[in-house]
Design brief:
There is one protein chain. This protein is mainly β and about 140 residues long. Helices cover about 10% and strands about 30% of the residues. The protein contains two helices and ten strands. The protein has a five-stranded antiparallel sheet with strand order 4-9-8-7-6, with no helix packed on it. It has a three-stranded antiparallel sheet with strand order 1-2-5, with no helix packed on it. A hairpin with a 6-residue loop joins strand 7 and strand 8. It is globular. The N and C termini lie far apart (about 30 Å). The relative contact order is 0.26.
């Protein structure tokens, strides 16, 4: 995992709204440790619009069942990340750092499309992505 996680990892299953895209990911239980924040909520333009709540497994901990071969891909801003959406229904599936994350080869997976996750019970770590990038970014993407 990208962050030290003192609990055993479990498999989480996810799929888009139409089920054309499905995957499995290994991650610690999302609500296992009260002071650990494995789920991130950003207030940047795309995360707010898409309702992203993200976890960050290593790429090798993500296993595609189907749908990885035809996602819609959206890049913006610095264009160093690919936002991958289901090619059929448009559900926001994940953010692919394309191996360029400064720490590890991670992907940001949207927990809102995971099966059995009770979003209202998650302890979220809020991040201010909107003000991080500066004035020009904010003029264009707000």
């Amino acid at each position: 995992m990208a962050s030290p996680n003192p609990v055993e990892e479990t498999q989480l299953d996810g799929s888009c709204h139409c089920s054309a895209t499905a995957f499995k990911v290994l991650n610690g239980p999302l609500d296992a440790i009260p002071d650990y924040h494995p789920t991130h909520s950003y207030i940047c333009s795309i995360c707010t619009r898409n309702g992203y709540l993200l976890i960050y497994p290593l790429r090798e901990e993500l296993e595609w069942i189907h749908g990885s071969e035809k996602p819609k891909v959206y890049r913006f801003g610095t264009e160093t990340k690919e936002h991958k959406l289901c090619g059929e229904c448009g559900s926001s599936v994940l953010v692919d750092f394309m191996g360029k994350h400064h720490v590890e080869d991670i992907v940001g997976v949207n927990v809102r499309i995971m099966k059995g996750v009770e979003v209202d019970k998650l302890k979220l770590d809020f991040k201010d992505g909107r003000n991080r990038w500066g004035t020009e970014y904010n003029k264009r993407y707000r």
